[in-house]
TrEMBL record:
Domain of life: Eukaryota
Protein's recorded name: Nudix hydrolase domain-containing protein
GO cellular component labels: cytoplasm
GO terms (BP aspect): acyl-CoA metabolic process; coenzyme A biosynthetic process; coenzyme A catabolic process
Signal peptide annotation: none
Plastid in keyword set: no
Cofactor(s) for this UniProt protein: Mn(2+); Mg(2+)
PANTHER family the UniProt entry points to: NUDIX HYDROLASE (PTHR12992), PEROXISOMAL COENZYME A DIPHOSPHATASE NUDT7 (PTHR12992:SF24)
GO molecular function, one term: metal ion binding
Residue stretches making up the Nudix hydrolase domain: 49-186
Length: 246
């Protein structure tokens, strides 16, 4: 595959994601409405809650696969140490919006220059973490992967790696655990990914976000959706969203 073909595919993906309407909603397994909204809908959400936007940075590899960049948090971190996560973090004074926070954090954590990332969509309303932080996934495309020279911040990131986005629609290496709460059953997803001599466990909120993003990009539900008795879908995606396979 030449670079022109790759850039054209990413450009098509950019155009399709940018057209997503605010009313195209997905219902999560815990009954929380989520929708993919255009970049223009970057208004701040309910005040009084801590907010932590994350960057879902997608790029195309030499085989034509769409991949997403992930990190393993440093063992020195006070929270979620050693866990796999998306680049991002809690908003700071001076951040204009969720996009500003997500791209700033990505630069601080892995040296990703914001000018290399074409932000095309967000998932709104935000996801709620187990520590009650509102996490807003910001979807960005990295067209020129060769220009990205990672510089990891050792105080925050132990390692950086990438995985095929389509993996989050397959039941290979997928597990789920049901956690019972008074009002609902929460389904804790996890995916095992092996690269060279390392094995990474992608689970919890990060896995849930990537399931949603993959479903939007590839225009289909996960293979394992039929096995999840609390997973409901309503107007998950429409013909306005990407209809061709990557």
């Amino acid at each position: 595959m030449n670079s022109t073909t790759s850039s054209l595919r990413l450009e098509h993906l950019s155009q399709q994601l940018s057209k997503i309407k605010h009313e195209n909603k997905a219902i999560s397994q815990v009954g929380i409405e989520k929708s993919a909204g255009p970049v223009e809908n970057t208004q701040r959400i309910v005040r009084g809650r801590r907010r932590a936007p994350v960057l879902v940075c997608l790029f195309e590899d030499d085989d034509g696969q769409i991949r997403v960049i992930l990190t393993m948090r440093s063992s020195k971190m006070s929270s979620h140490s050693g866990e796999v996560s998306l680049p991002g973090g809690v908003e700071e004074e001076g951040d204009i919006d969720a996009i500003g926070t997500a791209t700033r954090e990505a630069k601080e954590e892995i040296g990703l220059d914001p000018s290399l990332v074409n932000v095309v969509a967000m998932l709104v309303p935000p996801f709620l973490s187990k520590t009650k932080i509102r996490v807003t996934p910001v979807i960005g495309l990295l067209s020129d992967k060769q220009s990205f020279r990672p510089v990891l911040n050792p105080s925050e990131v132990e390692t950086m790696f990438d995985v095929p986005l389509e993996m989050f629609l397959k039941d290979e290496n997928w597990r789920v655990k049901q956690i019972q709460y008074p009002e609902y059953v929460y389904l804790l997803h996890s995916f095992e990914y092996k690269v060279e001599n390392k094995t990474f466990m992608i689970w919890g909120l990060t896995a849930e976000i990537l399931i949603h993003v993959a479903s939007i990009v590839y225009q289909r539900l996960p293979n394992f959706v039929k096995q999840l008795h609390n997973f409901k879908v309503s107007q998950f995606v429409t013909s306005d969203i990407l209809t061709s396979r990557m």
